[in-house]
Protein 1
Amino acid sequence: MTQSQEETFVKGRAGADIEIRHASHSYGPTLVVDDITFSADAGEIVTLLGPSGSGKTTLLRMIAGFVPARRGSILVGGSDVTALPVHRRNIGMVFQNYALFPHLNVRDNIAYPLARAKVRRAARPSIVAEALDAVRLPGVEERMPSQLSGGQQQRIALARAIVNRPRLVLMDEPLGALDRRLRESLQVEIVRIAREFGLTVVNVTHDQEEAFTISDKIAVLSHGKLLQYGPPEDLFRAPGSVEVADFLGESNVLHGVVELGREGHRLRRGDDLVLLTDQHVRSAGLVPGQDVVVVVRSWSARLVPLEDARTQRGRSWVRARIAAVLFTGDSRKIVLHSQQGETLSVRYTIDAEIPGVQGDEVAVQWDPSLGVVTSARTSPQEGDR
Ligand SMILES: Nc1ncnc2c1ncn2[C@@H]1O[C@H](COP(=O)(O)OP(=O)(O)OP(=O)(O)O)[C@@H](O)[C@H]1O
């Protein structure tokens, strides 16, 4: 590498935009990545979110080049990299298990991609020092990985992933092995570093909180299919399916049949009063007799005595019996069974008084505008692709 190339190296290049077009992969007859299409702008953090086995890692490995695309293509910075081998894609990677070389000290670990890119030996220490500054661990060059904590090792892995200014950084559950507090502080760090260096990041997680915290866009995957793609807020406010709604936060899923009336709209559900707003009817295009679900987040619902619910106007409620009151560390979770046989949950802060005990019949009540209405079918929404 020439000196001027090295300078570009040190000063850095920004991340590239990325486009996944109809990517598919199968192991044997099973499609584990099924016709996935989405794109992200340069400098964005995208998270692939989904339950175990949904195909997140396989898709990430396709982007990296470890797994071939059976169909479709992957473009980075406008160039088709589908046929390029891993080492020609200019991608940095961070894995859950750190994957540092145990026999190399921190300097040599971080310098490894520089050596492969044939950066002159004399130029490497300053680039390594800069990468260590970026991850806020200056001066640990001589340490061995075994002399660092898990969180520090993951910072080193991050430094190694960004040291040669890749066009794309891929992260596979990078914080999965760390405890909660460390995870939260590293989430903030990842965003800071990504912004500072203009990195484009594709991150894999099954933790929706992490996805919300760090992502500009979230791709929700299930059974190899992309259910929905967009900014976290959009997904949260307008999930395209029950599966997406359920996956993006602890929720109650209430089934019913739409009844539209002059005095108001509601779900047909026995004694329960599940109101639908004009906004619901318009945005979901509801028609009378349609099977729908209303999704209500556990934090949006409250418990009230049944007689109060019956006399208060303008609020939705369903009748349910308290099955358990659970202390979950940072909140209380009330588990209930509705008359319709659904299991519901309501969240309270620890210091809040809970209006009922196990065995009581109560109303689970909420502001109708906080309910999200979607069609009862769970197939992916074409419009979200
Ligand atoms: N090398 C392989 N050979 C055969 N099947 C595989 C292989 N790798 C993954 N699979 C299968 O492909 C599906 C998707 O796996 P993948 O690891 O991509 O999912 P994931 O969403 O990343 O899950 P997790 O969060 O558990 O890692 C799973 O059903 C898995 O069993």
Protein 2
Amino acid sequence: MVLDNLGSSLRGSLDKLRGKSRLSEEDVAEIVKEIQRSLIQADVDIALVQELSSSIEERALNEEPPGGTSARDHVLRIVYEELVALVGESTDLPLESQTILLAGLQGSGKTTTAAKMAWWFSKKGLRPAVIQTDTFRPGAYDQAKQMCERAEVDFYGDPDEEDPVEIARKGLEETADADIRIVDTSGRSGLNETLIEELKSIEELVAPDRNLLVLDAAIGQGAKDQAKAFGDAVGIDGVVITKLDGTAKGGGALAAVDQTDSTIAFLGTGEEVADIERFEPNGFISRLLGMGDLKQLAERVERAMSEQEAEDEDWDPEDMMKGEFTLKDMRRQMDAMNKMGPLSQVLDMIPGLGGGLMDQLPDDAMDVTQERMQSFKVIMDSMSEEELENPRSIGKTRIERISRGSGKPEETVRELLEQHKMMSRMMKQFQGMGDSDMQRMMKQMQQQGGGGGGMGGMGGGGGPFG
Ligand SMILES: Nc1nc2c(ncn2[C@@H]2O[C@H](COP(=O)(O)OP(=O)(O)OP(=O)(O)O)[C@@H](O)[C@H]2O)c(=O)[nH]1
């Protein structure tokens, strides 16, 4: 993830400020050094790093912290604001009819991004279509078609036509009914005349409303040259950074944004159509600094919940809040969790849990958790209706039988029952909360994610700065 180490290394230095009400020059110097180190490691352009660190330094030393603010909160706020300014606004993408052209080098993820973006727009209630003009890479047509089928969006391509401009022309005609037309172009292994000329001809014909440059997060310093070449050729309005789920650092993309005077539109976080996020500077930086990104989380939860409801007509999440929390409810929750995406990504979005928790866990702890959920499901499949509805009836003999039936150790069956007990207790606590408490909590979560993006605090408690 971009600037991955920044959150944890910065938290380390910030923790040393606990209890202090004033910042010394040494404190500021240490924090600035920490930030510089992380940014440079994340492949952020040196000139950008210099610019950022001098404004942080200047502000931290000269600005008077608002009354009652600790030195730590003061610095964190400045770092947050400056980082938000560094990554810039999100690319303007009104939810209305438009044509978007995707450009980028081979393998950057254009084809995948086209389908993901189409999926994203379709979830916003628009009708998108992908036009695949890549005649260069064998297989691009099939790949695009399959992904669009998975995304359940319209697709146009022609594997027998060799001229990409001709495909684009026909594609526009064929997709006239769509609201959003996403034109995917071919890439080459390096920047060359042919690629640029082809792109220019497609651009001229299509006359897109927006040109987006797709960049692999691993690109590093090369991003600047690429961005310049594409920017000179067709003009770039926004950047999509892909493969942020991997180990890549992504800092290079910031140079591309700077170079083309553009902004970031989307982030790609996996190979599936749903692995896309609209870039939101506040949430992005909050998450980076371990303050969580409640808005993204709320969106995912909402989506998973409505998918779950669509699949499972008898299920009403409100029921769970009222009566007994059964193993069936637990299984549904696990399914909903799975729909939200990898657990590690979900946890990363929860303020306070985010970076902090991830740092404490061994690297493979998350996989184990996913694996454990899988085992739990297998075990539940070996239980009878009655056992699922009334887990308290499961004694020693039944545990033995379930273990044999599921092929999982008795130990794991017991762990499942333990886990259920814990969740059940938690649900009881929620049930104890009045409706208004619950509503207040939800509202706070939404406001925080949508507005100040993590600056607003989580109500009366310590808040994300605590
Ligand atoms: N993990 C991960 N993989 C991705 C992501 N986006 C794309 N990929 C993978 O990257 C590879 C290249 O993606 P494509 O979409 O084929 O790239 P392209 O830019 O269209 O390539 P050309 O058509 O050759 O120009 C594929 O294996 C994708 O599955 C992402 O966000 N995360």
Protein 3
Amino acid sequence: MTAQRVCIIWNPSKTTRRDLESGLDQATSAAGSDFEAIWFETSEDDAGQGVTAQALAAGADLLVVAGGDGTVRAVAERLAEADTGTELAIVPLGTGNLLARNLGVPLNDIPGALNRALGGEARAIDVGWLEIDLAGGPERHAFAVMAGFGLDAHMITETDDDLKDKVGWLAYVESMGRALAASDPLEVRITADGQAHDGDSVHTLLVGNCGMLQGGFNLLPDADPSDGELDLLLLSADGAVGWLDTMRNLVWDNGIKRLATGGKVAESSDSATHLRVRSLRLELMEPRVFEIDGEDLGETTRVGITIQPGAVRVR
Ligand SMILES: Nc1ncnc2c1ncn2[C@@H]1O[C@H](COP(=O)(O)OP(=O)(O)OP(=O)(O)O)[C@@H](O)[C@H]1O
């Protein structure tokens, strides 16, 4: 086996290089890999795109990203753009760690994640691309997990961690209720795969590549990061009855009942619509803060979303 050039892109606000080196030593003794490690730090000014370009220029065979979802997103964005076939591995160090979670990467286990990084098989995953009009002009960003507005990743990560460990998805009921109560529905003109989607008044719109959250709660039950499609969830609950219908849809119809009956297609309800799309155009009648992989981009009224199938190979 020839020596691999492993470029480690790490967020120093999340861990120390010493911890990563020690994890790497343990992983190497388990995997017995022959490799050369080159280290790249992210910074407040470069969340990952710049160092990824440097690592690719240095001839990386494998990029290992050590950080939270924001760092993973930045690295995946640059890698998807470069289209080099260089593989990616994740050492999850954030709160949500949603991509790692959805791909079954060991959490809270630096040596375990590095062991998988060095020896694991890669799978190609899709990446979503967003063209968004912001106050400073149009911007283009990739996402690996999900994007949207309304009830968002903040609600998800702000949900009490102890509660999530104890009661799993039930912990989301309270925080989701709070998030729904705080957001008014608005009119959104939605064009999905070139077709106008009628009459949409929604308070939450999420489009994603994968939907598993902490506590085993799956917001986008049909989402498969390698299927070449994005999964869209529209929530339109207004008042307590709508909120109950939303919870029943997300927790019961597409959670427990689906598990029990082996359902394969996400069920929609009066207040929750599930769709699968390859492209999306959104025109919001009022500005809303749009978010990608847990990061706020700012307020917008116009967004275009496409998918780059199999854009990044992740171990
Ligand atoms: N060298 C650095 N010093 C301080 N902050 C940094 C540095 N490098 C990156 N950051 C900041 O880290 C943030 C990204 O963190 P990251 O995505 O790794 O974790 P996270 O956002 O806490 O993850 P999660 O949302 O899953 O908890 C960005 O705000 C970025 O500016």
